[in-house]
Amino acid sequence: MPDLFTHAIVRKPGLNCAQGITTSDLGPPDYGLIVAQHAAYVEALSALGLSVVVLEAEPDYPDAYFIEDAAVVTPDVAVITNPGAAARRGEVDTIEPVLAKYRRTVRIHPHGTLDGGDVLMVGRHYLVGISERTNREGAEQLGQILESYGNTWTPVPVGAGLHLKSSVNYVGRDTLIVAEALAERDEIRRYDKVVVKADESYAANTLWVNDCLLVPRGFARTRQKIEERGFKVVELDVSEMQKMDGGLTCLSLRF
Ligand code: CIR
Questions:
Q1: Residue 1's pLDDT is what?
Q2: Taking the alpha carbons of 28, 34, 37, 42 in that order, is the dihedral positive or negative?
Q3: 163: Cβ below 6 Å to ligand 1?
Q4: 3-class DSSP assignment, residue 103
Q5: pLDDT tens digits, one per residue of 27-51
Q6: Helices marked H in 62-182 — which ranges?
Q7: Do residues 83 and 68 make contact, with C-beta atoms less than 8 angstroms apart?
Q8: Ligand 1 atom closest to Cα of 69?
Q9: Rounded CA gap, 198 and 213, in Å?
Q10: 69 lines ligand 1 (CB under 6 A)
C-alpha cells in the first residue's frame, strides 16, 4: 500500500512561546528545550519519509507553532479555519498561501469557529469535536465542505480536554487510541480501540504517520499497549509543548 501521508508543514516555536494560551500548571516552557524538541519532531517526520516544510515563528502569534489548528487538510481540499481563540485568528493568513501550493483552499467564516485540533480524519469519515474552540456553526460549515467531496462526518461533543484530538486519535487499521473517559461514546462504537487510562490520558495525543506511531515520552503503559498491537512506535519528548496544552498532533499539518 502506498504511504497515505507524504507531506508535513510545521512552524518553529518562537521566543514568545511562553505567552501562548494555557490552562496547565506545569510552568513556562524552556525556549532552548522547546526548540530542541521541535527539531527532533521534524527529524522524526523526515526519517519517516515525509517532505517537511518548516515555517518561521510568528512574532505576533505565540501559539502559531500549534499549526494543526489553522487548517484541515484532506486529500481533496485544504480548509482554512477560523480559530476559536480570538488571539489565534490571524495565524491562518500565513498558512493559506502555503497550502494553496498543494490544494484548493476554502475558508471557515464567522460566526463559525473551528480549530483543526477538533477534526479527526478516519478514512473518508470525519469526527468533528464541538468544543470551547469549535462551535456548531463552524462544524456545520466544515461538514458541508467535506460532504461536497463525498465524505461523511459526525459531530462529537467534547466534554473534557481542549480539543477532540486531545482525547482520541486514529492510528490506521480501523483503530482509535482513546482516553478512557471517551471510550464508550456512541460516535466511536464501531472502531477497534486502544484505551488509555486516566493517569496517562495525555498519551491519547499520538500521531499516526503511515506505518508508525509517534507517542509522547513518559507513558510506558500506553506505549506497551500500542506495541502489543504490533504498531511500530517512535517516542518523542514534548514536555515543553505540554506546558502550553499542546502535543504531537498539534505540531504539524500532515497530508
Ligand atoms: C491553545 O490553547 O490554543 C494552545 N496553547 C494549544 C493548542 C494545542 N492545539 C491542539 O491541541 N491542536
A1: 56
A2: positive
A3: yes
A4: coil
A5: 999 999 999 999 999 999 999 999 9
A6: 92-99, 136-148
A7: no
A8: 12
A9: 20
A10: yes
Query: What's the pLDDT tens digit per position in 145-200?
Result: 999 999 999 999 998 889 999 999 999 999 999 999 999 999 999 999 999 999 99
Closest ligand 1 atom to residue 247 Cα is 11
| Side chain identity at residue 7, one-letter code | H
Pocket test for ligand 1, best of 16, 245, 248, 253 (most atoms within 8 A of CB): 245
Which protein residue's CA is at the shortest distance from atom 5 of ligand 1? 21
CB 171 within 8 A of CB 177: yes
Instruction: Of 255, 249, 245, 248, give the one whose Cα is nearest residue 88.
Output: 245
Residue 235 is inside which H or E element, if any? strand 232-236
By the 10 Å C-beta count (0-12 exposed, 13-18 middle, 19+ buried), 157 is classed as exposed
Structural domains of the chain, ranges and CATH numbers in brackets: 7-164+241-254 (3.75.10.10)
Pick from 65, 69, 166, 241 the residue to mutate for probing ligand 1's pocket: most ligand atoms within 8 Å of its CB: 69
**Residue 154, CA distances (Å) to 20, 21, 78, 83, 122 in order:** 30, 28, 19, 20, 11
The response to whether residue 66 sits with its C-beta less than 6 Å from ligand 1 reads yes
pTM, 2 dp = 0.97
The grid coordinates listed for 68 are 494543526
Q: Which atom of ligand 1 is nearest to the CA of 85?
A: 3
